[in-house]
Specification:
By secondary structure, the protein is of the alpha/beta class. It is 43% helix and 20% strand.
């Protein structure tokens, strides 16, 4: 990624690692080289969370974000609520291609943490690092935990949150009336808290080849519009 930018080439990527770790430096390099760095596919797949936040909601004053940013864990929690054990739900997710053979990055919350860092730094002007995010995954949740939440009119979700003071990824019990509680399966969602509009929630596909491919296409089309306008 560094080499194409240094060579004056536009870059469109869905690789969240470099963007979570080095976005500021990469963005500075892109500006210096007068090229575009497209990163829409790094968060929520084909659902345009970054474009919505950066192009349409910046004037609204984004003060906080909370989201379901990992489809694998959301699928597992959905299946557990339907009666599956954690190991059975994980095996099903792996069989369907939603989870890797080594699922630690997803189920321990690290994938969601990477995406949260990207959201915070691009949309909120933070200089957040991965080590600044308090992370807890879903591996300790039991069927009894899920049943207890359901009895109270709640359900478990792995929620990534960031505001001006803190950032965290952890399982939370959400009331069924909460906008994120109804998000099931591999679907992702994010709520932007804004000064002008209040809370704005975006829900859509966050995983899979088609969703990721669409995000790359969206960045390429945006680049094309920019070049055509110039």
């Amino acid at each position: 990624m560094w080499s194409p930018l240094r060579s004056g080439r536009h870059v469109v990527t869905a690789n969240k690692g470099p963007i979570a770790l080095h976005y500021a430096a990469l963005a500075d390099l892109a500006r210096a080289q007068r090229v575009t760095l497209g990163v829409e596919g790094t968060v929520m797949g084909g659902t345009p969370a970054l474009r919505l936040g950066s192009e349409l909601l910046q004037g609204a004053g984004i003060s906080a974000c909370a989201g379901i940013l990992n489809g694998t864990t959301n699928y597992i929690l959905t299946r557990m609520e339907a009666g599956a054990t954690y190991p059975a739900a994980l095996a099903e997710a792996q069989a369907l291609g939603y989870a890797e053979a080594d699922p630690a990055g997803d189920v321990e919350g690290h994938d969601a943490a990477c995406k949260l860092v990207i959201v915070a730094n691009i949309l909120m002007g933070r200089t957040l690092r991965l080590q600044d995010v308090a992370v807890q995954g879903i591996t300790q949740l039991t069927p009894a935990d899920v049943t207890a939440a359901a009895s109270a009119g709640e359900r478990w979700k792995l929620v990534a949150t960031v505001d001006a003071h803190a950032a965290q990824v952890r399982p939370q019990r959400l009331a069924l009336t909460h906008p994120l509680a109804a998000v099931s399966g591999i679907t992702n969602a994010i709520t932007f808290s804004t000064a002008v509009l209040g809370d704005v929630t975006l829900v859509g596909p966050g995983a899979g080849g088609v969703a990721t491919g669409f995000a790359l296409l969206a960045d390429i089309l945006a680049l094309h519009r920019t070049q055509t306008a110039a």
